[in-house]
Amino acid sequence: MRRPSVFPPRPSFLVPLPHGGPLALGERPLVMGVLNVTPDSFADAERLDTARAVDVALAMEAAGADILDLGGESTRPGAVPVERDEELRRVLPVLRALAGRVRIAISIDTYKAAVAEAAVAEGASLVNDISGLQYDPAMGPAVARCGAGLVLMHTRGRSADMYAHANYQDVVAEVAEELRAGIAQAEGAGVQTDRIVIDPGIGFAKRPSHSYGLLAGLADLASRLGRPVLAGPSRKSFMREALGDRPPVERDWGTAAAVTAAVLGGAHIVRVHAVAEMVQVVRVAEAIRRHASAR
């Protein structure tokens, strides 16, 4: 007799994009590579200028990345906000330089509507809003106008004070409820539901126990909201509880464990820094999932 899988099903979705075909989610987990062009990224050892960013982007695609996530402002805890024009100065040259050179989708990691619209005009297909539409009231209508996919991430407060808001009785239920409100806000602004991806915001306004709880409860979160899930545990500080106080670039082994948990929990996309290494992790974790489902 065939036994039920110990892992939750991963439903399939098609996310329409303004450039290229729709993003097919569900058949396998997709790998999103982090491409930061900021002077103060928490997790990268070097600052990338345009030429170097293009080289890194091409290398990520060659290593198996399915999506590139381009960011021009650090949103680590305590980060100093960046003005719109400076953020545009950082990201637009990279988008222009990548035009016609990568075949995979590009996401713009921003919470500013003006940056999102300008980036989509230059070839980005997804808007990854770490604020879940909380910081800029113009973001929802902007995404609706340009027809981009939208990643709604959960957080509370701003970078400077997010941990003051990290109070939960049931982290999965509360994050799901707040993301449900974000989905409703996006839909009210004209964003089509099939363009929305959710992100529980691991490490954002979360204590380590909350981040671990969300990774453990990813399938429950997804079932409550009925949308594809992106998980971004890569190199984050919640791992200090298990690994000790080591710098972010030395957390890739811990990241591998967190990515495995996300894949086994049904994540559709994992956002990572070390693309080549995490592509291997994702493929093996997915093979385990498939084997369990076939028993």
Describe this structure in words.
This protein is of the alpha/beta class. It has one domain: Dihydropteroate synthase-like (TIM Barrel). The chain contains 10 helices and 10 strands. An 8-stranded parallel beta sheet has the order 8-7-6-5-4-3-10-9. It has a two-stranded antiparallel ribbon with strand order 1-2. α5 links the parallel β7 and β8 (196-199). The chain is globular and about 45 Å long. The protein starts with 12 loop residues before the first strand and ends with a helix. The relative contact order is 0.15. The model has no long low-confidence stretch (mean pLDDT 93).
Number of helices: 10
Helix content: 40-55%
Main structural class: alpha/beta
Query: What gross morphology would you assign?
Result: globular
* Largest beta sheet: strand ordering: 8-7-6-5-4-3-10-9
Proportion of residues in β-strands: 5-15%
| Second rung of CATH, namely the architecture | Alpha-Beta Barrel
Largest sheet properties:
8 strands, parallel
CATH topology: TIM Barrel
Number of domains: 1
Tell me the series of helices and strands, N- to C-terminal: EEEHEHEHEHEHEHHEHHEH
Could you list some keywords that capture this structure?
TIM Barrel; 40% helix; 10 strands; 10 helices; 8-stranded parallel β-sheet; two-stranded antiparallel ribbon; alpha/beta; 295 residues
